[in-house]
Amino acid sequence: MRVFVPILIFAACAWAADANKNAVPTFNHDVAPILYKNCSNCHRPGEVAPFALLTYQDAAKRAQQIADITQARVMPPWKATQGYGDFLDVRRLSDEQIATIREWAAHGAPEGDAAEKPAPPKFASGWLAGQPDQIFKMSQPYTIPAEGADLFRCFVIPLNATQDEYVKTVEFRPGNRKIVHHAIFFLDTTGEARKRETVPGRGYSCVGGPGLDITGSLSGWAPGAQPASARGGVAHTIKKGSDLVMQIHYHLDGRQEQDQSSLGLTFAKEPPTKGLTLYVLGNEHIDIPAGDSHYVVKASGILPMDTQAVAIFPHAHYLCKDMKVDAYLPDGTVKPLIWIKDWDFNWQGAYRYASPVPLPKGTRVEMQYTYDNSANNAHNPSNPPKEVKFGEQTTNEMAFAFISLTLANPSDVAEFRRGTRAEFIASMLENGVDEEALGPQRAASLKMLLAAFDKNKNGKIDPDERDALVQFLIRREERQDRQ
Amino acid sequence: MRRCELGIFLPLAMLAASNGGPGFSLKDATGTLHTSAELVRHKATVFLFVATDCPNSNTYAPVMARLDREYSPRGIAFFNVYSDPSETAATVRKHDADFKTPFAALLDPQQVLARETGARSTPEAVVVGPDGKQLYRGEVDNRFVALGKTRYQPTENDLQEALDAILAGKPVAHPVTRVLGCAIPGISE
Fold this sequence. Notes:
The complex is a heterodimer. Helices cover 24% and strands 28% of the residues of chain A. Chain A is built from ten helices and 22 strands. In chain A, helix 2 packs across helix 5, helix 4 packs antiparallel against helix 5 and helix 7 (412-430) crosses helix 10 (463-482). The model of chain A is unreliable at 1-21 (pLDDT under 50). Helices cover 28% and strands 23% of the residues of chain B. In chain B, 46% of the residues are buried. Chain B contains seven helices and eleven strands. Chain B has a single domain (2-183), classed as Glutaredoxin, CATH 3.40.30. In chain B, a hairpin with a 5-residue loop joins strand 7 and strand 8. Chain B has helices at residues 2-6, 10-15, 55-58, 61-71, 89-98, 112-117, 158-167; strands at residues 25-27, 33-35, 44-50, 76-82, 104-107, 121-122, 124-128, 134-138, 144-146, 149-150, 182-183. In chain B, the strands form four sheets. Chain B has a five-stranded mixed β-sheet. In chain B, strands 1-2 form a two-stranded antiparallel sheet. By secondary structure, chain B is an alpha+beta fold. The A-B interface holds A 50-52, 57, 61-62, 64-65, 68-69, 72, 74-75, 77, 146-147, 149, 252-255, 318, 344, 378-381, 383 and B 53-55, 58-63, 84, 86, 98-100, 145-153, 155, 182-183, 185-186, 188.
């Protein structure tokens, strides 16, 4: 009997395999279409991914690895949790697709019928959106070392705009696709970025961000991204005299490399009919004790006019593990804007909504980010862990959600900014003045405000005192804007 | 089962040291033949299993160059081993030149060395003594934590610690560690 049992099992397996012959996935019939649509755009020669996934041989020798990494949803890289925000360019496999790959690998990665083999995808070269009106290129190649932590570098490129210009299409071309992991494009009207770039063309280190008061952006790029064209009536505005600050994340690959990337801009002939602004929700009061594995940072803000969210870019550093942003509309509905459950600093990026999310006046936007400053967090830059405060360095933390909002009219942008600044100050006063977070000067002026508007003298601004304060602040901002 | 397969490589196995160390006779990427007879000339020999298209092994190029600089004067020999049959001498030469690898690259298309040492993925490091005895097999350091998750910086330099122990005449504290990387095609099950 002992002999028979394995034979019977074997026979049963053989029968089952035969009966389901058509169900065993093959490369040509089942797996190639999944890989070509979701992987090959980066996994092809000359791109950032370390190996190609174009031929049967490419995939077959890594069948188990592909099965494991898709099962774990590490690849394709897409951090936004399904059901929390409906986004464009989603890089996410369905459960069925993952199961297909797993089955294929488990059955020895069969190639299948040659007649069913799909044509490998064709990838356009050159400018995907056509020749741009103007190309802004890093003035010199930048050398990236073989080894070390990933680099975040900001390159300052003058845009030489003699009047305000409106951008229709932004297309980034990495100079060296093997190492350019992602890029974000900021606009600087203050000249501050130029000062930071002490040697022109060499850029400056900018792990946390460009280190500027961010007033404008031209969105960002990640491998596989299609050129971002503005949607109806919307355009990024380049203020006269702005500099482009191109923040590039370089992923070191074990050998010395060089990069000289460019940004191509196509301009809109007509000025935009809608306003576009960057709403910054954040909290700079971060002080995470060493070893704390669950430190929560919250922030909220109230939108001072009707808006539509077109994109969101959550940002924190290495310790953050979970980030959630929700909008509480005045009618009581809750709209989730994004939820990332396994934040990875190296996979940050902008998420564009599939269709604009209406957020009417009075909407409260709330963020809740969670941080792990324990030794169990492999991303922790400090070993053993150290106390971590807000800041731009690798060993500091941040908590921001940059939300691109459209407004009914371009002229609404100034009023929206005044309103959000006023709301920001009012929300700080609701909880009393935090001297440590603000510094002595800002704290002193806020204390004066608090004293003036705290009618019941309870040391904070109550909801009924808040409206009067916000109106006062908006009027003050208007006066300042006119001067 | 492994022993059965070794029968095919009987002439190679005969070169192995008497206590069952790795028997090999492999050409490097420049055509020079290396055999297990070389082991006796060094205090220990490091074989790092790599692949030209494995990002995990590529990231160690500068680390291995530094270890070579530091440890080869102290009697440790270093080899990269390419056990993927699809790697050619020309691609390996170009790759190791690009990554400035200072030591020889063995081509192991029959996967003799991979099977004999038990290496299953890249970058797996195997250290053997002059008598062919395996002293360490595992990761270079612990930077890779899980699929797609990399430590900000390694906290355990396992290969270097093994070499220090060997040179000090002490047993290696963790003689086998797990490796996270790319499967060697046809080896891993």
